[in-house]
Amino acid sequence: MTDRPLFPRVPLIGAAVLVGFALLASGYGRLAGLGKPEPAGIATAERNLQFADRKDGAVIVTMADTGQVLDVMTGQQGFLRGTLRGFARTRREDGIGSLPPIRLTGYANGRLVLFDPSTGRQVELEAFGSLNEAVFVRLLTMQARAQTASAAAPKAGGI
CA quadruple 28, 30, 31, 32: dihedral positive or negative? Predict the structure, then answer.
């Protein structure tokens, strides 16, 4: 029998150094506050919105506080519809109907958040690129129309 170790020393020392570095780096990150979510910041604009599908495929966007129609969106509206489908799915799973409004909030630091208070679901819209975010920026900044949702057309269903 020989006196050689069963495992070579160099890879063993390398692995120990790597584990030590990982522990030190994670400890430093925790102490320095790295990786914490960015604070919400100051809200500069906020709207409570309701969305409903019209029989012709358009999406009626209504300000929940006043009942005024904000916009009637026609065409594909892929990002808007996809985002709203996610909210609708969560509401169905939780047994919540389409009546509670969804809150759209713009912050001073540039964040734009779509939040459903009834389910707690939140979408950070800037994460999807400026073109997709612009769909919701427009809803946050535009003026309401004079008509109410009932005058826009009968609803086929909402989110």
Answer: positive
In the chain, what are the helix, strand and coil shares in percent, each to the nearest 5?
A: 40, 25, 35
CA–CA distances in Å: residue 16 to residues 6, 11, 12, 107, 120? 17, 9, 6, 45, 43
Phi/psi for 124 (5° steps) reads -85, 105
Per-residue model confidence as pLDDT tens digits over 16-27? 999 999 999 888
| Sign of torsion over alpha carbons 140, 114, 119, 50 | positive
pTM: 0.65
Domain extent listing, the chain: 1-36, 43-158
Residue 47's pLDDT band (cuts 50, 70, 90)? very high
- Strand partners of residue 113: 105, 124
